[in-house]
Amino acid sequence: MTKVIHTENAPAAIGPYVQAVDLGSMVFTSGQIPVNPKTGEIPTDIVAQARQSLENVKAIIEQAGLTVGDIVKTTVFVKDLNDFATVNAEYEKFFKENNHPAFPARSCVEVARLPKDVGLEIEAIAVRK
């Protein structure tokens, strides 16, 4: 049975989709842009944007009763692939701080444009053990 996941600790969906779906054994998040769920603000620098998107993913995963350590796959969409090394550094820091046993599998692609003209968007898949 599919369960819809929603938390006030991540931005509300801005279209006809949900923050995540929980299939029981797996949770799939929608792409998370770097919107602060409390203020609606978007950081201007790519490091802060990466951190906010990751924190939004974390809030959703935790609402599903899982942890960052349960994330097995992410997809990172960046507007400028020149930001790859900078985003990688923040991404690595986030997963280490959250005691991930190993980094998740990941794809990172450059895209022409993202909602609200942000610099990146991150989605995740987590597995319930």
TrEMBL record:
Record SUPFAM superfamilies: YjgF-like
A Pfam match: Ribonuc_L-PSP
Gene Ontology CC terms: cytosol
Family matches, as PROSITE patterns: UPF0076
GO molecular function: deaminase activity
Superkingdom, natural source: Bacteria
Coiled coil: none
CDD domains: YjgF_YER057c_UK114_family
InterPro entries: RidA, RidA_CS, RutC-like_sf, YjgF/YER057c/UK114
Family: Belongs to the RutC family.
Name of this protein: Reactive intermediate/imine deaminase
Source species of the chain: Haemophilus paracuniculus
